[in-house]
Amino acid sequence: MTFRQIAVPTLAIVIFLALWEALVWVMGWPNYKMASPSDLLPAYERYWSLFLTMGWQTLWRTVVGLLIAVVFGTALGMVMGFSRTMRDALYPLLVGFNAVPKATVVPIVALMFVGMHDFNTVLIAFMISFFPIAVSVSIGLSTLEPEYRDILRSLGASQSTIFWKIALPKTLPEFFGALKVAVTLAFIGTNLMEIVSPHGRGLGALFDSGKTNSDYPLMFAVLIALAFLGIVLYYVVVALEKIFAGWAERPQG
Amino acid sequence: MTNLIEIKGVRHAYKTANGPLPVLDGLELSVPEGGFVAVVGPSGCGKSTLTKLVAGLLKPDEGEVWLHGEKVKSPRSTVGMAFQNPVMLEWRSILKNVMLPLEIVPTKLGRKEQEERARYLLALVGLEGFEDKRPSELSGGMRQRASLCRALVHSPEVLILDEPFGALDAFTREDLWQIMHQVKEKEPFTGVLITHDLRESIYLADQVVVLSGRPARTQFTLDTGISGARDIEHLYTPQAAEMLATLRHQIEIAQGRAPAEAPA
Ligand SMILES: Nc1ncnc2c1ncn2[C@@H]1O[C@H](COP(=O)(O)OP(=O)(O)OP(=O)(O)O)[C@@H](O)[C@H]1O
Ligand SMILES: [Mg+2]
To answer: What is the pTM of this model?
Structure first.
């Protein structure tokens, strides 16, 4: 990572915060309309231990949900990628499932598994995020050019060898593209559960308590903390992509 | 001498949205052990399809393909193939691409010898120094040469080359012709070469087969009268000029641009 790669985004964030501060100041908005960055610091100061524990709860439940989505989505994508029949059969089901707004699923899940908050949250994070992974893996596998297969097939290689040596690595760039979408979705799923069906855990719950107590700076502070976590998760995926699918990146210039 | 490759009355049609597309119809071809046959024919007549049938990647609708006295039902590891479209695995270095067949085919070579063999072949085709590069950093002609190394690395009994030098400039191409003769002398193989370069066909092969237009059948066979290595001067002899003229005429017939005549 070069100095430029760190300095440019940092500067962009600083400018964004300055503009935000200026906007609130110029418009003369009170706290309950729009908190400004300078209001957030006291909120973090007062509740920092809550931010840490609840941030951690949000984080681990998102990651677990995402990991399950990766395993399940990849398996489903493989089934659909290798079998035309399965693809034709499962696609409409998947699309329908994905189209159901997850906010409507949250209360149902909360009722089905009353009291199992961690399980519920992970479940929603998983349900909302496996779709892009399954689709990308299935498309990656089903659109693998026959020329690639033929290199190994002409030597009498087995289907599983072809999968491990050709299909899987070839699909990795698409997989990571989908994972970047999925990680954000899983994060949204976790927060959805925490906010719509509050149970005192996660940053969503902290947001909810801010709402109940009309603590507007706290609400904004939670939003920013969520954004921060989202950025961290996203860039972890980007780093993994660089390691495992860096070859797909075109050299610049 | 036995015929190592034997194609008998092969018919093949691709299934397309507009119904079956007959590509090969009544194809006959035999290559003796250690022989080298060049196949020429109009574009789209079914030459690449022919290579896939020999490699066992496709099954003929009718007729039979025999390798080594066995009917070909599926691909086998004694075949080395350089495809017309020389795809490389972009996530591997050139060296690792060339070594790929050794990961599939049983080999007596140890890890180090495998690498030495791949490096040796790459140097042979003029790719020394490119071993650790990614395929995307190579030109089309360089990728084609690497793909040739990949076809040779496991010392196959049968070598199938589908327009292997198409993307090369004339000089590099002539170098590689000589290299092919060298390789064949050291590690004898039975070869099928698809090409659209008539000079290449008579310089490399013992026999040149002209296919008709689609659906292709064997239209004409020419014996070059030599086997094994030959001097590049050979291309400038009167006999060579005569062979080229004959082949050119046959291609024109295959393209439907000259009337077919009773074979002399
Ligand atoms: N997988 C496929 N499905 C359907 N049609 C195909 C397929 N592969 C090839 N064809 C068709 O079969 C015919 C013969 O193709 P083939 O690739 O064997 O020709 P070729 O002689 O190698 O041509 P060229 O000299 O241009 O390489 C062409 O008309 C092509 O469009
Ligand atoms: Mg072809």
So the answer is: 0.81
